[in-house]
TrEMBL record:
Keywords recorded for this protein, A-Z: Cell membrane, G-protein coupled receptor, Membrane, Olfaction, Receptor, Sensory transduction, Transducer, Transmembrane, Transmembrane helix
Membrane topology value: Multi-pass membrane protein
Superkingdom assignment: Eukaryota
Residues of the G-protein coupled receptors family 1 profile domain: 1-206
Protein name: G-protein coupled receptors family 1 profile domain-containing protein
Pfam family name, one: 7tm_4
Primary location: membrane
Subcellular localization, as worded in the UniProt entry: Cell membrane
Organism annotation: Ranitomeya imitator
Residues passing through the membrane, by range: 59-80, 119-142, 154-176, 188-208
PANTHER family: OLFACTORY RECEPTOR
Annotated InterPro entries: GPCR_Rhodpsn_7TM, Olfact_rcpt, Olfactory_GPCR
Length: 228
């Protein structure tokens, strides 16, 4: 589109793009919750960690996340492709996604029901699960007597907390924002953040505690570091 200047898409192209976006977003949402649950088990019930998060259970969690992403995106595409458009054929977004289509579809009770159920099951529920997990983790950390113990426990969660805050902060801001021309540019900016910037930052955030990564980053910006 940028090279040709042609900003039109066929229905097949648009819905294919929306399918993969919905699939990946749903899977990522569930994986973030699973990672939060992992931190809860590691800190709150560490003696049961290897039994709760065994290899078999981890494969089950991962499979559930990916299959849920497939089912959710399939339902979303099915509902969207059958909903009539009343207002426009122009998607007010730089990619095809569910919320952008809500603005141009005719009022449709079935489509609205699917929209609310998707937000509840694959949006709000994983978010609340992650939030509850970290509330329990914070309670346990505050009960640790030694400052070194508290610091060590918190350091195991810091990377995931940063990613969780970036992802949910931008997602929630976009999806609870009421449709308005005044907020369109702000909404597009947030969309760029959670679709491109946040995924690019994930490897940096998760590896920042690695000493070799820190040393490489310091060298990159011109600082002299010891090789010890």
């Amino acid at each position: 589109m940028f090279l040709s200047g042609d900003y039109t898409l066929s229905f097949a192209q648009c819905f294919t793009q929306m399918y993969f976006f919905s699939h990946m977003a749903t899977t990522e949402d569930l994986l973030l919750f699973i990672m939060a649950y992992d931190r809860y088990v590691a800190i709150c019930i560490p003696l049961h960690y290897h039994s709760v998060l065994s290899k078999k259970n981890c494969l089950l969690f991962m499979s559930t996340a990916w299959i849920s992403g497939f089912v959710n995106s399939f339902v979303v595409i099915l509902a969207s492709s059958n909903a009539p458009m009343c207002y426009s054929n122009m998607v007010s977004q730089f990619f095809c996604e569910f919320k952008a289509f809500e603005k141009i579809f005719c009022p449709n009770a079935h489509f609205q029901l699917i929209s609310y159920l998707e937000a509840l099951i694959f949006g709000l529920s994983p978010f609340m699960g992650s939030l509850i997990s970290y509330i329990m983790v914070i309670i346990v950390i505050f009960h640790i007597r030694s400052s070194d113990g508290r610091k060590k426990a918190f350091s195991t969660c810091s990377s995931h907390l940063m990613v969780l805050s970036m992802c949910y902060g931008t997602w929630i801001s976009v999806y609870i924002m009421p449709p308005s021309e005044d907020t369109r540019d702000f909404e597009l900016t947030l969309s760029v953040l959670y679709t491109t910037i946040t995924p690019m930052l994930n490897p940096v955030v998760y590896s920042i505690r690695n000493k070799d990564v820190k040393r490489a980053l310091l060298k990159l910006v011109g600082f002299k570091v010891s090789e010890e």
